[in-house]
Amino acid sequence: MSQLVLVTSREYFSEVVEDGFEKRRLKTYPQVKDYLVSVLTHYLDARNLYEPEFDESGVKQPQTLAEMLLEAHQSEPFRKISLLKKLGDKSLYISGFFGDSLQRKLVDIDYYVQMGGAAYAALSTSTKEDIHAKVYSEISKRFLDIVEVLTFISQAAHVNSNESVLRLYENFLRTGSPIAQEKLLQMGVVLPQQRTLKKN
Question: How far is the C-alpha of 188 from the C-alpha of 171, rounded, in Å?
């Protein structure tokens, strides 16, 4: 099966983030909303949720959130910021989009909330740029509010624990389902006109 590229619409995500804050009657800085748009754009490709076991040089990578946080605090500044950002963003996205399914697992949503909040708090004191520090601090302090906005966006787009973007995309590739295609388009995923479907 040929690999297809998902083309995301930042305009779409900007609209749903704005609508999410409005519908939940929450206010925040415009820069925080812009940051959330970037997070949604990044994780629309669900492969970004999974960490490779080894990096390009063969060094084993931290797999759990706790390992990531520990390594971040033991790393030089550039890698520390990179790991903390990845940890915070991943925790935020999973909490907002897959919170319901986490309730039935050993590692529940509280774990993701604690780890994500801690990561953004550490980022806010590790980042030199004032505007970035302000964004990270706001997300850390209002992590649950922002999770609520992401959950609203998830439900509005009909994405839940049983129907992730990845599952919809795989279903579309496998079957060409017009329903899967319609839902993907509603979520801002622009599908290439030329596509190769997997043969059964």
Answer: 17
